[in-house]
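Collaboration report, partner site 2.

Our partner group contributed sequences for two proteins of shared interest, and the home lab folded both. The records are reproduced in the order in which they were received, starting with the first partner submission.
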Amino acid sequence: MRSAHILAIGLAICICLTASEPRADDAPALRLESVRLGSTRNVHSFGKNLLCGQPSAEDFAAAKKRGIRVVVTLRTKGEVNWDEPATVKGVGLEFHRFGFRAPDTLSDAVFDGSLKILSDARSKPVMLHCGSANRVGAVWLVHRVLNDGLSIEDARKEAATVGLRTPGYEERAIDYIRRKKAEEKSVRPGINKRFVDPKLNVTEWLGRFEIESREVFAQRAAVVRACKLKTGQHVADIGAGTGFFSRMFAQTVGTDGKVYAIDISSGFVEHIAVQARKEGVENLTPVLCTERSVKLPPASVDVAFVCDTYHHFEYPRSTLASIYRALKPGGVLVVIDFERIPGKSREFILGHVRAGKDVFRQEIEAAGFALIEEVAIPGFKENYFLRLRRIDDQ
């Protein structure tokens, strides 16, 4: 297993497959849809979330019936002549205000606060509104790039659909995105260079990954048992490589379950799609990820599995944040990686793996996970198995 990143940002890989083959996709995709909500103007849904202009007092109750749990207004105090916070709270909804009225008042604090709420919008659906959805579009642009891994260009198109029309807001949003991305430096530049090469020889890597001398392959059955998967669960195999764990997971979770085989390599993703078709595996979806995101929607999986791949995370903070969002509340993260112990580990491991288990565990826990247990896998001499759980009060 290796990396869960890619150097080019994109929604999905374009693979020339027959219609009956599994497609490489970054879905289950949600789409913006124009909907009606009482007298509220310019309303769009995205899953259960609503992006819109100013709702009336009565429309908040209607939004609650649609599943909304949180209301975020981007309007400043005094822009409406009635008590919106009291009205929202009166119908049993959570209320937040991140107000601004001009580009020079669209601060980092507005983006910081709204993005934190939107990052959990799958489990706590949000209504994000302003007067006409113009300001909403600016915040949505940033959310879709930084929280969901969308390209800036695709996010700009969505923002325009939502209602963004003020160039100054867009400029502020893009500047914020670029500064935030620049804050996290690559921890290992070029570590994934081989895998993003379009000329990658998949056959060569089959000979390296699917061989009994490799611990995780030799102990694959024990690893799958240790994951404690249940029928019907949705699983993300992050850094799926040649996909042998993905196919085993697909069999374990059954036809009511689903497996997303996620990789940075278009060659591996295509190979996984073809193999799934050949073997008749219908509950497996290949996904081409990015260098910073696993490219899954919020709360879409029960278990995230990262095998011999964490040390390939070039931007671990961003990638872990995307895994956190992709997991359902209480979801499980399994991490298998190499023990890196100076004076004991092989030279290959010391040179290739940037840090040991304690450092990786600290990084993962800082991203919102708590260790459940370290599992002893018979036959593991160079690898460790950590089971962690998403903490839901982040």
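Second partner submission, folded after the first:
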Amino acid sequence: MDKLLGAVLRTDLASFVRKVFATVSPGARYCHNWHIDAIVYQLMRVHTGQSRRLLISQPPRSLKSICVSIAYVAWVLGHDPTRRVIVVSYSADFGAELHRQFRMVINSAWYAALFPQVKWAKDTGLEIVTTLGGGRYATSVGGTLTGRGADLIILDDPLNASEAYSEAARKRVIDWYGGTLVSRLNDKATGSIIGVMQRLHEEDLAGHLSEQGGWDCLELPAIALDDEVIPLGHGLMHCRRAGDILHPERESRAALEAIRAEIGSLLFSAQYQQRPTPPGGAMIKRNWVRRYIERPRREDVLQIIQSWDTAMKGGPANDWSVCTTWAQTNGGRMFLVDVWRDRVDYPTLKARFANSTQSGVRKRSSSRRRAPRSV
């Protein structure tokens, strides 16, 4: 291996991640993005002891496992073969697959050349041990850990997405974490725990740990919810504006909106936006909304109300302008009788509004400068 390249891979974790990606995904194109640097920065804070508890929440397929459970662990063991690491996943199959990819890295010729001091004494489907007693052990939630200790514990998606709304499943993960896993740290004062996962429910493990406090948190929603400044290390910052896409080169706004339409707003809000909401809704409860077949009789309608939520541009990447028309009846009910939704420029929007005014429809406008962000 070239000496300069070797020096870079040994000292720069972001470059090491890129090399690992090429090893576990041969032929795939690596698209670097600022969020990889943000993850690496937080991992380095754990490595140097500045952080002992790190919680990363990010969307599916955004390289969280390759960065944390594979590359970071291989990099840590390369620098210190005495370190013991436990990696926990929601299932044995998922854990075994991550461990298989990890073994692809540490058994590669380039890794052996990069860290020649690392020698392996044991290599199985779930565990690999160095000649100096360190290593990586893969297990699942509820798995046996008797007699095992760790300097670093990683939780990689500890809850299966299909069990997100099972209170028993969520409680099992939380109880096992607090009752079994934390006690496996060899040194409670210096041992580190990293959680990397997609949010699935308000009361999942990430929500539980956040409420406890004491965790450094890195939230990476697919579509930015607020303006924020995210540290990238080496004095660099990434300024992310509300509405910015996490990694547009891999998943465009159109692709994300298609996913939202396919899986529904509740799942999208949790898994992609890292903001899970109750199944019944937050401010507006789902059971408040009912469907109807026949429109209310004209004589029962007290007034017609329109609510306008406006954007100002008509391009395909811009927000929608929306007008909902409601009929309020003397029974105290509100019937949604029409929805207009389009991406239009300001003159077209103004004309549409004027035409609606001339039609004699009574309005109650709630227009704003731009449409609210989707969550």
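Feedback sent to the partner group on the second submission included the following. Residues 360-375 have pLDDT under 50 and may be disordered. The CA atoms of residues 102 and 223 lie 30 Å apart.
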